[in-house]
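Lab notes, practical 5.
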Amino acid sequence: MKFLDVKTDYAFKKVFGSKESVPILISFLNAILDYDESNKITHLDIVDPYQIPLLKGMKDTFVDVKAQLANGKHVIIEMQVLNVKGFEKRILYNAAKQYSQQLKRGEAYQLVNPVIALTFTDFRMFDDTQEWISHFRLIERKRFIEYSDDVELIFVELPKFKKTLETLDNTKDKWIYFLKNAGDLDYIPETLSEPCIKEAFETVNEAALTKEELELQEKRYDYIRIQKGALALAREQGMEQGMEQGMKQGAKLTKLEIAKNLLDILDDETISKKTGLSVDEIKALR
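Output from the prediction step:
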């Protein structure tokens, strides 16, 4: 067996965003959101189920799946593979937009349903913690009084998830492992043989896909590889330029310090020749 990389937009949407994905998505959300038995999701509607032609023109490095739970709560599930500029603001903006656009003109505010933005990243976001799941809500900053849980942001950082097949403790671990590693596996591990996870594997089994679907996945994967390479090159060049600029600034500071020590014993022109600073810079020091 060979499976698609679920972190790419086509595979992610195929697993979690198709009309057939409802049982898979229910299992996935119940595990990730840590709902207890009394609050378990039993039904949801997937908004705008995926279609291959719609994905062909996608040029972003993220994809989202939107669902509305039976209790009215909205969930935006997103996979982001690159840490691009404005990413954090876009997450908050989309959650706020989903929250604010529920009401029609004249409707009462109490009709607004809560929104959860559940985001998986293929990069580290919060370097001050090794926790791979972070929850954010509106709270008072000193007394930690919760203002509202109507807008909740949840981030799952896949690079921080280091568990192996032997150390997976629960269904949540198993789903995160699937999301991070499915593309590297050539069989369905016994540890991940729970019905919905097994069905998710079968959904991205390359043997069951058409030639068009495989070509689409490969094109998307190539696009992401190119974007990752471009970002890596930009970071490398930025570091080199930063080091060069830093060395220049350090050399300039050294010259200025030397010049200051010579002000009492040499004239401006002589100091300029000794240090390489301009006469105007020497005068400014004086």
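Observations recorded by the TA: The mean pLDDT is 83. The longest strand covers residues 146-157.
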